C-alpha cells in the first residue's frame, strides 16, 4: 500500500484509511472481528485508523485502543468530536469547554496519551471559530494532539478556520473528511479547490455510497431485509430515513447500474470499480473503508488496488457528473 503526505504537513498516511464506525455491538462488528480487521489492515501496510467519540457510545474508540495496543507508534490514530456526550448544554459542540472534556474522554477510551489527528466532526454555529481553533492549538502545544482536521465543513468554513488560525499564529487544519463517491461529487466544485489552496489533504468517506454502488439495491425493488438501507428506512429517526431515501433515488440507481456493467466487463465486483474510481482521483489523499467483516476489508483493499482502464473511468465520470460540474474539455456532460 502506498503512503503519501497529508496535506501541507510532514505526516505520511496510507492511501486507504480504516474507518471504524461499525466497531461495537450496535455497529454489527464485535471486538473479535474488529481485532482481525485491524490486524489485516496494518499487515497490508495501512496505517490510518479513524474513529470518533460518538461511534457506538464510545465502544469504537475502546475497541480500537485495545486493537492497536503494543504497536501504537506505527498507527496514525484519528478521532473526532462534536456530537453529544451527555444531556447538558455544554456536552456537545466545538467550544473549548466541550472539546477539552471530549479529548480527555477519547484519550481515556483509546488508552493513549495522544491522538495523531484530532478532527471537528462538523461545524458549530454557536461557537466562534476563533475559540475552537485556539482550543485545538492548545491541544497541539500540550502534546495531546499532533495534527488537527475537520469533517463535513463547507469551503467557506474551511477558509474561516484557516484564517482564524493564521491570525492567532496557531495551528491550521491539515485534513478534511468529506463525503465523496460517484453519487456525491459536489465537493469538486469548491471544496477540493479550497483544500488545495489551504493545504488540507482529504480522507474521503462513504466511497460506496452507503452500499448503493456495491450493487445491493435495484430500481423498483425494496431494500432486502438486513441491509443497511433497510435498517435506515425502518429507523425511528427522520434523518436516517431521509438519508436512505436520498441515496436510493432513480439517478443514483442508474449510476449504480453503470458501475455494475463496468464491473461485469472487467470481471470484478461493482464495489471494486467504485473504490477504484475514487482512489484514482488526484485530489483524494486516502479513502476511508468501513468494513464489518474481514472479508469485506479484503474486498475493499482489492478494489483500491484495481487499475481502472481510462475509458471506463471516463464513462463513469460522464454518467455521474452533476449538472453544475462542467466537463474538463468544456463539452456538454451526459448522464
UniProtKB/TrEMBL annotation:
<keyword id="KW-0560">Oxidoreductase</keyword>
<dbReference type="InterPro" id="IPR050523">
    <property type="entry name" value="AKR_Detox_Biosynth"/>
</dbReference>
<dbReference type="Pfam" id="PF00248">
    <property type="entry name" value="Aldo_ket_red"/>
</dbReference>
<feature type="domain" description="NADP-dependent oxidoreductase">
    <location>
        <begin position="17"/>
        <end position="320"/>
    </location>
</feature>
<dbReference type="InterPro" id="IPR036812">
    <property type="entry name" value="NAD(P)_OxRdtase_dom_sf"/>
</dbReference>
<protein>
    <submittedName>
        <fullName>Aldo/keto reductase</fullName>
    </submittedName>
</protein>
<dbReference type="GO" id="GO:0005829">
    <property type="term" value="C:cytosol"/>
</dbReference>
<dbReference type="GO" id="GO:0016491">
    <property type="term" value="F:oxidoreductase activity"/>
</dbReference>
<dbReference type="InterPro" id="IPR023210">
    <property type="entry name" value="NADP_OxRdtase_dom"/>
</dbReference>
